Each structure stands twice: as structure tokens, then as C-alpha cells.
Amino acid sequence: MGSAGRSAPGPAGRSAPGPAGGPAVGPSVPADSVPADSVPADRALAYRALAWYAEAARDLPWRRPDAGPWAVLVSEVMLQQTPVSRVLAVYSAWLRRWPSPRALAADPPGEAVRAWGRLGYPRRALRLHAAAAVIDREHAGHVPDDLDALRALPGVGAYTAAAVASFAFRRRQPVLDTNVARLLTRLFADGTRASDGLLRQTLDRMLPTEPAVAAEASVAFMELGALVCTARSPACGPCPLRSQCRLHSSRGLVSEGSSRPPNGASPPSGQPELAGAPRRPPYRGSVREARGLVLAALRSSPGPVAAGTLSLACPDATRRASALAGLLADGLLQALPDGTYALP
DNA sequence: AATGCGTGGTC
DNA sequence: TGACCAAGCAT
User: Fold this and answer.
1) Is A289 among the catalytic positions?
2) Cα–Cα distances in Å, from A272 out to A85, A222, A266, A275, A276?
3) Which nucleotide has the shortest C1'-to-CA distance from A82?
4) Strand B contact set, beta carbon < 7 A
5) Is strand C within 7 Å of residue A216 (CB)?
6) What tens digit of pLDDT does each residue of A49-93 get?
7) E strands of A10-160, at which residues?
């Protein structure tokens, strides 16, 4: 257990976490003096989120009772950096075709890439296939419920492992994704963005004791981040945590709906946020785009495609060559002896 | 630890 | 209209 301050997840050092935070900001207490009787205050936030979730939750297929661990794993991998709206159709078709890890492992990986469609980051399809093979071979076809075993699966990182352990097996696990991180950062806003470790520690204090309830609370936090405490324009009005939210109160009682607290931190000093954010390289005209074009051509063909077909799909020879080399290296593409290309 | 990895929607 | 954003992971 760390002695980390329990108030703001942010490093206790920065931005003078002084008690100045004020009493109205809820679970904010000077570091050090913290003890156990303050824990329920954090848990109260979870119960508020739970109550809100009971009313506002979306009905998503992977949350239904009939969604087993495999379905949950599939959904979590598909949802990595990908909006729910785009995942829905692919998810259904995927599970219909491969209702178990064993079924997927029995097909060639290229079929997974094909079924992945335009979800993006097609390496995820490859890794999900590889994960299915590991599950089949090393876990008797059952998705493991152990955090470390999950973490060891290809394509499964800290978030996905915690999500599967929690949502599929009702284990009491802090589940930290971008939604929850944003939510906590605003909730305890002290001008800094805490480390993931500290955020998870904070979450752990917030989760109810009963594992199944904790699991539900984790989904509730994520849903809150996805629907209410959104990145661009958070709707503080309906937020069940509003009265406990440090950022919201620091904004001075923003009305509702359109209330728009900026992001987590206000630059302490002048810092005109100049050369700060590194600009993302343009997608148009990139090798990245070329990879997509080549893969799309492969997907749309039932069998191998000729080099000439790829030239049509991606006319720029330089980028096409880079894309092919990259896809080959990633195992997303196979070069056949006759000069054609195919999915692996 | 900073990068690279798809794709499409939104304001 | 381009920049940001969407349930991250691997290297």
C-alpha cells in the first residue's frame, strides 16, 4: 500500500494540493491523514454511479447475461480505440461465426483479418486469433479468469485484462480506461494528470467490496465517461457526481447541458500551450493509408490478388512498397511464390 | 518512453 | 475544415 494521498490522484507534490481544495469537493482530504473511515466517502461515488447506470446504461450485447468470457474478450479487443457504433455489427458476425476460441483458432488468421473489416488496427484481428490459439492450447479452450494469464494473451494489455476479469468473471478489479481516467482527472482535478498506477489505486478505494457490485461499478464509471463526462463537451447537468466534482465546482457552478469544463488541467502559469501537442501526421497520403488500401483489396478478394490489382488499389508505388513491406513484417500479408499476395 | 498502428465521425 | 476523438497494445 502506498502512502499516496487519497484525495487527488495527482502526485501529492504538484499544484499544492493544499487543503484549500475546500470541503465541498468531496473526497478530498489532505494526504497523510487518511484512514479508513474516509473510504466509504469514495465508495459513495461508486454507488451514485451505480444508481445512474441503472437508469441510463445502454443495452450493449456484450453486457447481456448471455455474453460469456469469450464474447467479452472479443468485444474488449474490438473496442480498443474504436467507437461502439462501429463495433456492433462486426462483433455479432464474429461471434456467430466463431462462438468459441477453439472455433476461431481452427481457421486461418487471414480469415480473422477479413472478418475484421474496417474496424481499424487490423493487427488486433491477428492478435485475437493468436489469443484464441493460446486459449485453445494452454487453457483447454476456456478464457482464463486470472489477471496474469489474461495479460499474457496476445493483444491483451492492462486494461483489457482487467476488463475481462471484471466484466466476464466478476472479479474485483480496478478497470482503468480512457473514459475512467478522464472522469477521475476531472473529479479530483488538481491541475495534473495522475499516473495510471495512482488512478488505479484511487479506483480500488472507490470500488465496493462485493466483487460483482464492484464490477458493475466499473462499467458504470466507464459508461459515465462515455456518455456524460465526455472529452469535448461534458454534460455536467445529469452527472450524478457533479456535486462531488472538483473541476465542476472550480468552474463556479456551471449551469447544465452545455456546461463545458475544459480539460483536466489549467496551465498553472502562462504557458500558452504552444508547441505542446505534437501534431499527428496527416493520414491522407500516408503509408498508413496505403496499408489500409492494400488490405482492403485483399479483403475484398476471395483469394490471392495479383500485384497489378494492388497497384490499382494503391497507385503510389513508393507508399505501396512501404505498405507491403510493413504488412508482410506484421504478418498481415503473405507473398506467394507466383508473385501474388494473400491474407495469411 | 515515445512511436506507430486504421478508420470514420464530429464540430 | 482540419484537428480531435473513439473501451489500447506492443516495441
Assistant:
1) no
2) 36, 32, 11, 9, 9
3) C6
4) A 81-83, 86, 118-123, 232, 278, 281, 283, 287-289, 291-293, 295-296, 326
5) no
6) 999 999 999 999 999 999 999 999 999 999 999 999 999 999 999
7) none
